[in-house]
Amino acid sequence: MTAAVLSLGSNLGDRVAHLRDAVDGLGDSLLTVSGVYETEPWGDTDQPRYLNAVALVIRPDAPAEHWLRVARDLEARAGRERDLERRFGPRTLDVDVIDVRTDDGAPVVSDDPGLTLPHPRAHLRAFVLRPWLDIQPYAELPGHGKLFDLVRTAPVADDLAGLRARDDISLET
Ligand SMILES: Nc1ncnc2c1ncn2[C@@H]1O[C@H](COP(=O)(O)OP(=O)(O)OP(=O)(O)O)[C@@H](O)[C@H]1O
Ligand SMILES: Nc1nc2c(c(=O)[nH]1)N=C(CO)CN2
């Protein structure tokens, strides 16, 4: 069994529909999903604001790579096009694998560029950590510490003001 934390983001087209389709696409694997946050673009500021959320998924006998395939499938279904000129540019749907745990709760750690775990930029991203805190308040990002500490220290703390909870949108199925 592996459990994974997936980050979902959208800033092109019908953002809510893209997030809802992604959550639907997780099917029986979905354990729970966070609230939705409107967030300032990170890494490349000249683009529309994102809607972000985080999902917790679980599946018997799934290796960590399974979650990367799931992420890529969901992005493809949302018609995501890669702009090689803009690494952090706009997209219909972005699904990142943030953290994967085995049966005993041990984190999967990998420096494979094809699947780096935990996600190498997650500790810098308020748009990942704040929604994650909604669903696992005592979670730890391996190598970086507790979420509740990360969101209270720079650089994440400085970016929290740019997040707005969208309580009018629910991704619960
Ligand atoms: N934990 C991970 N989650 C998702 N993709 C990963 C991960 N680790 C490595 N990758 C690789 O990163 C490559 C680029 O993925 P992608 O285009 O989604 O990046 P990005 O979303 O633009 O940037 P970022 O990963 O910083 O959010 C993919 O080919 C994928 O194999
Ligand atoms: N706020 C926000 N900014 C981003 C996001 C995202 O999901 N949310 N995804 C990116 C892809 O790497 C780049 N920047």
Describe the structure.
- Helices cover about 25% and strands about 30% of the residues.
- It is α+β, with helices and mostly antiparallel strands and about 170 residues long.
- The protein has one domain (about 1-165): 7,8-Dihydro-6-hydroxymethylpterin-pyrophosphokinase HPPK (Alpha-Beta Plaits), CATH 3.30.70.
- Strands 1, 2, 3, 4, 5 and 10 form a 6-stranded antiparallel β-sheet that branches.
- The longest helix has 14 residues, at about 65-75.
- The radius of gyration is 15 Å and the shape is globular.
- The model has no long low-confidence stretch (mean pLDDT about 95).
- It binds adenosine-5'-triphosphate and 2-amino-6-hydroxymethyl-7,8-dihydro-3H-pteridin-4-one (PH2).
- Adenosine-5'-triphosphate binds next to helix 2, strand 5 and strand 7.
Mean model confidence by pLDDT: 96
Amino-to-carboxy terminus distance? 23 Å
The total beta strand count reads 10
How many domain units? 1
Assign the structural class, choosing from mainly alpha, mainly beta, alpha/beta, alpha+beta, or little secondary structure: alpha+beta
SSE pattern, N- to C-terminal: EHEEEHEEEHEEHHE
> What is the CATH level 1 assignment?
Alpha Beta
Helix content: 10-25%
Backbone CA Rg: 15 Å
Shape: globular
Give a quick set of tags describing it.
173 residues, alpha+beta, Alpha-Beta Plaits, 6-stranded antiparallel sheet, two-stranded antiparallel sheet, binds adenosine-5'-triphosphate, binds 2-amino-6-hydroxymethyl-7,8-dihydro-3H-pteridin-4-one, EC 2.7.6.3
Provide a quick synopsis of the model:
By secondary structure, the protein is α+β, with helices and mostly antiparallel strands.
